[in-house]
Amino acid sequence: MKEERAAYEEFASVYDMFMEEIPYKKWLANITQILQKEGVHNGLVLELGCGTGTFTELMAGSGYDMIGVDSSMEMLEQALEKKAESGYDILYLQQDMREFELYGTVKAVVSVCDSMNYILTEKDLEQVFACVNNYLDPGGLFLFDLKTIHYFRDVCGDCVLADSREEGSFIWENSWFEEEQINEYDLTLFIREKSGLYRREQELHDQRGYKIDTVRQILMQAGMEWVSALDADTMKEATESSERIYIMAREKGKKNKIENRKDDRNV
């Protein structure tokens, strides 16, 4: 594997343009269907790894009071521009998912677009899950998606993707490392500047594939109750041929007491 470089710095400015085919509305329908089935029809919901805020905005438009957490300031700057345009009262926080802090508990925590795959060790994943458990209401729901090992190894594999637009172009090289269960995206960007010239940048993105049984065990170690794993396409029980799955878990008591803090919506 190559030496790690910063992810989602330069890419943030063109992320939405190149990711316009992501089925956010389908994901919204799936996520809200699950939430409502579990009794979460409104109220405070946290999105982890919110990125440029596209899904956060859709959730806010569906009646949820949203908080978005992401470690990339560049991505959050794009999210704040969308917030200014839509007028939704969304609270964005620049924080690491492994040690995020809120002002109190929330009804549900969601995470989409394989944000959890960016957590590369089981220890770190348990830290994320423990934080989630601490900031959920009693019996609150945790719902997140994952790309599967099958997708990384057999569908994505060692392929190269490319796209070119007037505003910019990218070359996306994928490398799967079986022993580490890591998929490495080597991203080369050509971003058009106001002068009309193109600036070349490179970023490295690593994602890890996890077995369902491993995720179940880590969730339980973090104090959560396992609920189910669904195929994101069929919304039925996940199988070995699933490419993206939804994992659902519940809050099951607190390991650490959370202080209630005043919710400052001006952040």
TrEMBL record:
Gene3D superfamilies, sorted: S-adenosyl-L-methionine-dependent methyltransferases (2.20.25.110), Vaccinia Virus protein VP39 (3.40.50.150)
Pfam families in the cross-refs: Methyltransf_25
Listed GO biological process terms: methylation
InterPro entries for this protein: Methyltransf_25 (IPR041698), SAM-dependent_MTases_sf (IPR029063)
Keyword Disulfide bond assigned: no
Keywords: Methyltransferase, Transferase
Name under which the protein is recorded: Class I SAM-dependent methyltransferase
Species, as recorded: Muricoprocola aceti
